[in-house]
């Protein structure tokens, strides 16, 4: 069993397969010339499997593959197939562009739920955010997932200057489609030009939503990051992830493994535990995992508090979002 110093049990592992991506979203990988890690420094398929098996033996029962964009990782199909043999719920977070190519692999692996990052429904705004003109491909692939009975959660970063124009359009997606749209408060990472003025809080979005719709609060799942709501007669749901305005650290059950094999016990933590180097040297991994997780701070990586408006992003010690894993 994996516990931190506050007794929180961790059974959910997020594995970043790569720090590369075929999009350049402004809040994640804004610099077109950013250098990705060389192949020798990232986990190889057999190393990913070995580390995943170790975590499963310690109580992990859910694994999410992230990036970067996990589907651009060489050997993604092999990695997926091997992880599918483990006794875990397996899922991914993706920008959606390559889903059609890998749909057979995803179905064979028994993936039943996929998170798709989609920050704009207007193709021009989509291109402005991602610096790629691929909206239609992403949308078609979302429809393809639904046609194959895969549950789709849409992750939308609520940034000032963007979400105000499309909030109701996103909500309307849930009227006739069984989509689960989640609005995520804009979080600070290296290179993403975070400012408190760019944060649109869940409370603000909720008030805007209630001005037009009657909504019903749903029961949140254990360890949930999202506060879920239902609009009567809509097939889907909406939810708000309140990282900045009302964190959910008390019930956190998540561990992160970066593409270069570093354990991060919190997305905001500056502390990392190098598992890959130890694995390659033939050293015991389990003690390192326990030690790295045990030191987890009570909230927000110990780097800031709930008053995000006073936060100086330059004072944070962390990676860019793309090198952590979404």
From TrEMBL:
GO molecular function: 4 iron, 4 sulfur cluster binding; cyclic pyranopterin monophosphate synthase activity; GTP 3',8'-cyclase activity; GTP binding; metal ion binding
Protein name per Swiss-Prot or TrEMBL: GTP 3',8-cyclase
Reactions the enzyme catalyzes: GTP + AH2 + S-adenosyl-L-methionine = (8S)-3',8-cyclo-7,8-dihydroguanosine 5'-triphosphate + 5'-deoxyadenosine + L-methionine + A + H(+)
Stored NCBIfam families: moaA
Keywords for this protein: 4Fe-4S, GTP-binding, Iron, Iron-sulfur, Lyase, Metal-binding, Molybdenum cofactor biosynthesis, Nucleotide-binding, S-adenosyl-L-methionine
Cofactor(s) annotated in UniProt: [4Fe-4S] cluster
Radical SAM core domain: residues covered: 5-232
Annotated EC: 4.1.99.22
Any one GO biological process: Mo-molybdopterin cofactor biosynthetic process
